Amino acid sequence: MKTILITAAAILCAAPAFAEGELKIYHWFEYIPQELVDKFTAETGITVTIDTYDSNESMLASLKAGKLGEYDVAVPADFMVGIMKADGMLDTFTQDEMPNFANIAPQWRDVPFDPGRTSSIPYQWGTTSFSVNRDVYQGDISSLATIFNPPPELQGKINVLDSQNEVLILGSLYLGIPQCTSDREQLKALNDMLLNAKQYWASFGSDTAKDVLVSGDAAAGMIYNGFSAKARAEGANVEYVYPTEGHVVWMDNMVLLADAPNRENALLFMNFLLDPENAAAVTNYAAYTSGVTGVEPFLDEAIRTSPENNPPADATPGVFAQACDQETQQLYDAIWTNLKK
Amino acid sequence: MADRSGYRGLTAPLLLPTWVVIGLFMLVPVAVMAIYSVLTKEFRGGVIWDFSLAAYDQFFVTRGLFGDEAPQIEWTYISIFWRSIWQAALATLLCLIVGFPTAWFIATRPAQSRGVWLFLITIPYWVNLLIRTVSLKFLIRDTGPLNEALMGIGLTSGPLPLVNTNLAVQLGLFYSYLPFMVLPIYAAVERYNFAYSEAAADLYAGRWTILREIVLPIVRPGIIAGCLLVFVPSLGAFLAPDLLGGAKTFMIGSLIEEQFKGAQGNWPFGAAVAMILMSLVLIVLIAYARAATKAEAR
Amino acid sequence: MKGLRHYPGFLPMTIGCLVLLYAPLIVVMVYSFNGSNSITTWGGFSLHWYVDVFTGLEAARFGAAARNSLSIAFLAASGATLIAVAAAVAMVRGGQFRGKQATFALINLPLMVPEIVIAVSTLIFFSAIGLSTGYLTILLAHLTFCIPFAYLPIAARLQGIEDTYEQAARDLYATRWQAFRLILLPLMMPGIMSGYLLAFIISLDDFIITNFVKGAGMETLPTAIFGSVKQGIKPNIMAISTLMLLTSVLFVTLAYLINRKGQKTP
pLDDT tens for residues C116-172? Predict the structure, then answer.
């Protein structure tokens, strides 16, 4: 490890006339505070340019259409890391190359989508389930039935995420069937349940999930925990639920892209983000949860104690979205198309 | 028509920039897409270079959820097409009904103020479509100003359910594309010689007869241009259906987008849907071009 | 008989049209002064978001995005209008020629292809010929899809102009260029203006295609706005939109004043 730092230092000293290099980040919009990027530039002299995308899939599509090799790092969600890794779109690193690797919280050091964390580090993680406006409905909301078989007060006032993965996984959790099943009876049950539930739904929308709750267009809705916290902060009396059937866990990860033009700088940046103070800066900005130990002293009080970010101790654990194989995925695609036809 | 204005020999150089720019940056990419539509899909986006008609098969033929039933006609995508076409046609009609009088009104203003009127029509479009659509939704929601006003003056007892209805989508499409109807019609009407109207009036034609029999045929190119500019983009529109209609059903635009950007990642199918859509539009365009050529020959 | 210019109901229709066009903008303007983080609930009057636009974390990015959007819209609309004028003259005045229908279809091709398809295929094409994505690729893509929006109003206008004026000029020994510049061009002006404005707003508003062909660090206003929507729309977007409106009004006023001055001193 030392040798690398020495080499890096040597390079920095040997060529002071050059700009110390570049780093090209492919990132979600407004997902990293500018001060943090400036801090990195101030510490290392590396110029950072950020390009943005608006969904995991559009990032994948544009990398596949020819942008791979243009960027050093990107920030895909868990299942997308698995997909990109399987497609050979990610480079690997060793723990020796990243001194702060040990800061990664133990439960995130070995994850199914990137065993042993050889290509990715945790960026932020959160959960997806649903929220209910307590002014409209005061009854029991502990079950996913609130969304899929709602009480009369909520019927016709529900927004669901316009996202195949989240809707189908929450539906599967509700029915108690596994993800990526190819069992006909189970899939038929899922299909029928969703078609029946659709009559109670007012709209599909992901980006609008928060606004419809705040404006009152919807009285309940599938939502990400951070988004629900924002809705609450904007004055909506919404309660985020960790349902008894379980919920979806997702994690955005910073990955080292294959053919990265500035691999060394990319590793420096990833290492920088694993510093608790820096990880906390991202969390304070994005309002989700970092996967780094030791961030607590640096967190804003509101975020550290928010009910959305801190599930009750007895909550049913969440599940990651699994990447199904091609044939099974086709069945799920058909169910989704069927739902929206 | 004799060529006394002298452009006949110049058509090639005049059209060269169009051919080069559109040929290179649009025709070639479209050819790529046409090829993609007959390739094998790569799981989660991309293509494998093996010939396959699977994408077209998926569009027209269904074999049940599990793919083992007897093949039948697949109505899912045809009905998505039908719905989108119907919606776009209604939006076009709505734009025409409002756009024509507006264009006429502007064209009959004094010459120096017409430019200002045109700008008045286009200024709102300096605000991003997304923001405009969100704001429109704000106005028509159950607790929005429109419903509050309606209830305030006692016209309705409860809020009119507008958001997440087809009516809202129509309104959104109308709002998205209105200038694309007004401006071409204006360009045509502005040229209209009112001596024709006067001559017809001298022959005791009523003003609506004049409008129908004399004005409409003359300004027809502008109306057709406007209809094309509203209808075709409306077909692929996704913001108004998503935000105002609640996205409960696919439209052509969202269906294609889902294939390239969504979880399904089926590029050949997305390309095939696009090809089918383009063929439909092309048929309409060529029919129009034929009709225009005939009209010219007369 | 001046009354023939006016039809009952056309004025109310125009006013209704303008009310509808501007009503949502009032929401935009009002909420740009919202004191809270929300675009749906009112939290008191504040200039906070305007300060944020110029000094906030994303100020530099949004500023650059607005400049990119405006300059690309200006260049793409100007280029597309020039190309469209040439094409319209050839198509309408050029008589019959081989491939006329094919050319007509070609001109309208960008209109027919769904945006997402243009986006993906153009990016594939640019990468295939080794053109790295950035300002230039956005400009080329915009130039291309702006052409039919400029062409259709111009051609519609030109079809309504009899060629007798030009012929008269030619009979009086005007050169072809003089006949075009002094006779045809002024007659085409309303069409050109309509086409230019449509091309300009369509370029200014494009998201899907730009999102694919933009390169690292490049942002236009629509991509910046769509990107920020992921975290929820905040009133800062409303403030930026209001500023864009002010810019456009400024341009229009300027154009009007210049125009009037030009007419006073012939």
Answer: 788 888 888 888 888 877 899 999 999 999 999 999 999 988 888 888 888 888 888
Please tell me which residue of chain C has the smallest CA distance to A73.
C216
- CA B41, CA B266: separation in Å to the nearest integer? 6
Radius of gyration of chain C (CA): 22
pLDDT tier for residue A4 given thresholds of 50, 70 and 90: very low
- What is the residue range of A297's domain? 3-123+251-304
Residue A312: exposure state from Cβ atoms within 10 A (0-12, 13-18, ≥19): exposed
Number of compact structural domains in chain A: 2
What is the largest distance, in Å, between two alpha-carbon atoms of chain B?
73
- Cα dihedral: B72, B73, B74, B76 (round 10): -130
CATH (domain of A266): 3.40.190.10
Question: What is the fold, at CATH topology level, of the domain defined by B78-259?
Answer: MetI-like fold (1.10.3720)
Quote the CA–CA distance of C262 and C257 in Å, as a whole number: 8
pLDDT at B293: 67
The answer on A63 and A204 residing in a single domain is: no
CB A126 within 8 A of CB A229: no
What are the tokens at B79?
């009905």
Distance between CA atoms of B8 and B175, rounded to whole angstroms? 41
Mutate to test the interface with B, among A180, A215, A327 (most CBs of B within 10 A): A215
The token pair that represents B189 in the structure block: 């009407």
**What is d(CA B256, CA B254) in angstroms, rounded to the nearest whole number?**
5
User: Cα separation of B64 and A187, whole Å?
Assistant: 13
Q: Do C111 and B105 touch (CB under 8 A)?
A: no
| Beta carbons of C57 and A34 less than 8 angstroms apart | yes
- pTM to 2 decimal places: 0.85
- Are A208 and A318 contained in the same domain? yes
- The whole-angstrom separation of Cα B18 and Cα C94 is 15
Q: At residue B245, what is the residue type?
A: G
* Inter-chain residue contact B7 with C94, CB threshold 8 Å: yes
- In this structure, the answer to whether residues A182 and A282 fall within a common structural domain is no
For residue A7, count CB atoms less than 10 angstroms from its CB and return exposed for 0-12, middle for 13-18, buried for 19 or more.
exposed
Looking at the structure, do residues A189 and A315 belong to the same domain, yes or no?
yes
Judgement on whether residues A172 and A38 belong to the same structural domain of the protein: no
Those of residues 225-264 in C touching chain B at CB distance below 8 A are 225-226, 229, 233, 237-238, 241, 244-245, 247-249, 252, 255-256, 259-260, 263
